[in-house]
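Section 5.1 Outputs to date
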Amino acid sequence: MHRQATEDRRPADQTLGAVPVPPGAAPVPPGTDPAQPAADPFGWLDEQAERRRAAGLVRTLRPRPADSDLLDLASNDYLGLARHPEVTEGAAAAARRWGGGATGSRLVTGSTALHAELERELAEFCGFEAALVLSSGYAANLAAVTALAPHGGLIVSDTGNHASLIDGCRLARATTSVVAHTDPDAARKALSGHEGPAVAVTDSVFSVDGDAAPLPELAAVCRSFGAALILDDAHGLGVLGEGGRGAAHAAGLAGDPDVVATLTLSKSLGSQGGAVLGPARVIEHLVNTARTFIFDTGLAPAAAGAALAALRLIAREPHRAARARAVATALHEQLTAAGLTTVRPDAAVVSVHAPTPDEALRWAADCRAAGLVVGCFRPPSVPDGISRLRLTARADLTETQVTDAVRTITRTAPAGAVRR
């Protein structure tokens, strides 16, 4: 293994700071000379913080109360299940039976019968052969991309992909080609110049604008070159497909031998965690090679119990998916009619254009002061020049709540956001 040389190559009479080093004496460590100010190893953080302030890009934490009168259009609780009695009882019952934590990695002590049950039912519901549950959706994406893109292979990645897919590409030992947004022809061009293993990775529904990837066309391109397709269905599960079975199911790709789907348990399922779904041999490969699975503590039993209860609710009440989509359509149509620029939603994300990052932040703050919580997306979460308010269309919103939300957003909109 290559090791960086540690030999001291200074001349014998070299000094550290203002203090000569006597012959045979130990060197004075940097920063210990009282005559010389100590160097600040984190001084560069202050420079970056100042640049963030100047650009209106400072982020802060805002703990939410357990109970609030605010109307929430910012969370990812698409189906309104996070507080459903069956879901919270599923979490509590799992914690009582299995304990507060998984106690170890899935390959040591962190797997329970509950994890296996959740994996079986996830795979069955979404139409895949097998599933593997991980501690987060982020970890699931890292696992899928890094383990399924071999050394010397090619990853074709949509330019609008989520940060977790982008990080997976960076960590993989393959070459990554970033292609134009939702453009199967761009993917075709990238694949045509490569010989060897290849995989295309894409969000099924993009988290900022809520637009969907052209999955059937992209899958056809992949198959023409013998490439696999990995789709991140974080925003599709529970909203798209028959009864919310996801984007792969809606596109007729679920269960195909060259398609892998990742998802999160923290959105439509109202819990926390992630999963990879695909052919059994793919899942077996991940168990043996995916570092975010092997070296991470398993999903907490409470999260697994909540997700399983929510999954069973969705299967029993398939109307929730259609209702979430209907709410998204209503928000889009009413906001557009009010003169705001929005992106037509393909699932349950509704994006509203804001003129600048500062105005987006003030707009979100004004909405909150008026009783409405909305998401605010600014660079680097989005490219420069496209700051947004992001609204979550929840299945449990009433028509009156939708109308009230539109009225608040329109009334508080900055002048540059409204078309005249």
